[in-house]
Amino acid sequence: MPSARLPDGRSLTIDEAACGRLSCGALVLDGVSPGDDGPLALEIAGLEARLRERHAGCEPAAVPGLREARALYKSFGMDPSRHRPSSEALLRRVLQGKGLYRLGSVVDACNLASLSFLLPIGLYDLAKVRGDVRLCVGASGDGYVGIRKDEVHVGDRLALCDDEGPFGSPTSDSLRTSTDAGTRTLLAVVMATAGYPASAMSVHVDFVGELFGRHAGTHVTWRALLGAREGDG
Predict the structure, then answer these.
(1) How far apart (Å, rounded) are the C-alpha atoms in residues 138 and 108?
(2) Number of neighbouring beta carbons within 10 Å of residue 207
(3) Which residues have C-beta within 8 Å of that of residue 180, sequence separation ≥ 6?
(4) Domain assignment of residue 233, yes or no
(5) For 104-154, what is each residue's pLDDT tens digit?
(6) Is residue 232 part of a domain?
(7) How many beta carbons lie within 10 A of that of residue 185, not counting itself?
(8) How far is residue 107's CA from residue 121's CA, in Å, rounded to a whole number?
(9) Which residues constitute the domain of residue 71?
(10) Nearest to 66 by CA among 116, 110, 137, 22
(11) Structurally, how many domains does the chain consist of?
């Protein structure tokens, strides 16, 4: 099973049930210190305007860049029209003229990254994650309290789990491991199908690291690609 060691010695693993259907790029980002959010707001506004112009009159589900996230859902037996990938939910807001929620530099930078390459990104306060991390298929009945949501059900769906149970998915993350004003170290996980080119995933991971460095004061202390096919980069 694809696995890597986080800087503190814990493991990040794609377990057997998800292996062959999933690849991911992961980073640990240290030293969170949000500053002026003006430049980030301008960058978000610019991307929103470009996306509205590029996809004017197009149904969000038909946007070519969303095919990968929707294929990931289908590979786990999930209907992406019923349980939307987080990247699709963001794009829908933009194309409807609503714009992204403004939730602080850390979350806003994550949403900007996800909207830039249209893949779901899980973002977690690493200090709140308990033990090793597994990307897995949730057990029947598994779920958690979401961020600004009631129970998020991940039974028989792709999930991230630690010693206390599930805490994330490509749809919505948990309140338990969410970032707040005291967060200093982040774990970010970009998710795609196993067939997604590792070279492209590597570019996305570097982009996330650079974006957080500019807008949240972080530096990358660890990065890894898991689940890539041999020869993909």
Answers:
(1) 28
(2) 16
(3) 125
(4) no
(5) 999 999 999 999 999 999 999 999 999 999 999 999 999 999 987 678 999
(6) no
(7) 20
(8) 11
(9) 3-226
(10) 116
(11) 1
Q: Is residue 38 part of a domain?
A: yes
Residue pair 205/7 in contact by the 8 Å Cβ criterion: no
> 196 to each of 67, 72, 86, 89, 204, how far by Cα in Å?
11, 10, 18, 21, 12
The pLDDT assigned to 101 comes to 85
Residue 193 lies in a domain: yes
Task: Kindly report the CATH number assigned to the domain that includes residue 113.
Answer: 3.50.40.10
CB 143, CB 204: distance < 8 Å: no
Instruction: Give me the residues paired with residue 186 across strands.
Output: 29, 125
Altogether, the residues listed in the chain come to a count of 233
Q: What is the pTM of this model?
A: 0.95
First CA to last CA across the chain, in angstroms? 19
- pLDDT mean across residues, the chain: 93
**Cα within 13 Å of Cα(36), Cβ side:** 4
Q: Which amino acid is at 83?
A: H
